[in-house]
Amino acid sequence: VQGFTIQNGLGYHVEVTGGAHHLFRCNTLHETVAFPMRSDCLKLDGGATDIQVLHNDFSRFRSQAIDMTGVSNVLIEDNDIHDPVDADAGATGTKFGSRDIMIRNNRIHDFGNDPKMHAFSLGGTGSAHPDDHEAYAVHVESNRVWNIVGKLAQVVSCVDCSIENNVLLNAGAGVILSASATGQPDCGTSAAGCGPSTGLRIRDNRMRALDGGGDSAQANVFIYVEAGEQAGLSASKNLYCAPTAASARFGWLS
User: Fold this and answer.
1) pLDDT tens-digit profile of 133-167?
2) How many Å apart are CA 241 and CA 229, to the nearest integer?
3) Fewest CB atoms within 10 A around its CB: which of 35, 86, 96, 217?
4) What is the pLDDT of residues 32-57, one digit of tens each?
5) CA distances (Å), origin 114, targets 43, 172, 179, 212, 215
6) Are strands 49-54 and 20-25 parallel, antiparallel or unpaired?
7) Which residues, at least 6 apart from 70, have a Cβ–Cβ distance to it below 8 Å?
8) What percent of the chain stands above pLDDT 90?
9) Is 62 within 8 Å of 38 (Cβ atoms)?
10) Do 172 and 235 meet the contact criterion of CB atoms below 8 Å apart?
């Protein structure tokens, strides 16, 4: 799919479901119509594999620009994602056992005013699926993110995922390792429910001007790790810019 301008879609503008060797390139997608549960610009699902999403412009979307559920071997590169309709809309979501996802060299900017939003979701909660975690090997690399009220990323039941070499500027907060899916019954292969995130790498990122979404008490929070989500975590060579060294904040096992 190449060279289209699509707007005013009810639900998804485009859905890639099943099959392999898909290319979605140089399209303009904007203004998704409000519709319960389905207002993503681009939906990747149904076991689709080997997907490339390149050089597109996404705006005026609800929910997420790109939502991935149960897919594999995806490259999302050099897209401009900006100015959604919903205050809590995100750029990408990856869950339901999705794996081997590379999100690289995209521009994410000018998002809504809900502090709970996140540009990238590595894992997430929702419907049941036959996996022991929500996502595997999701890599967010070399993206530039600015003018968002919420977080750079949330990590939810994600195995061997990474957030590396990104630039975050004028945002609410950095990265949260969330326990929201851990132990939940979405993951059908384990009686214990979805497993916690393991093996996350946060490296070579540059984060500055984190204002807590307008709440000074939450300002300058760079990484927050909820209890049980710390196994295999590596965070190194990041540049944390705060007004003073003492004002830089991190949350650990709380």
Assistant:
1) 999 999 999 999 999 999 999 999 999 999 999 99
2) 25
3) 217
4) 888 776 778 999 999 999 999 999 99
5) 23, 10, 20, 11, 12
6) parallel
7) 45, 46, 47, 96, 97, 98, 129
8) 83
9) no
10) no
Contact 48, 22 (CB under 8 A): yes
Listing DSSP states for the chain in one string gives -BS-EEEEEES-SEEEES-EEEEEES-EEEEEEP-TT---SEEEETT-EEEEEES-EEES-SSEEEEEES-EEEEEES-EEE--SSTT-EEEEEETTEEEEEEES-EEE---S-TT-EEEEES---S-BSSSSSEEEEEEES-EEES-SSEEEEEESEES-EEES-EEEEESEEEEEE-SSTT-TTBTT-TT-SPPPBS-EEES-EEEEE-GGG-GGGTTEEEEE-TT--TT-EEES-EEE-SSGGG-EEEE--
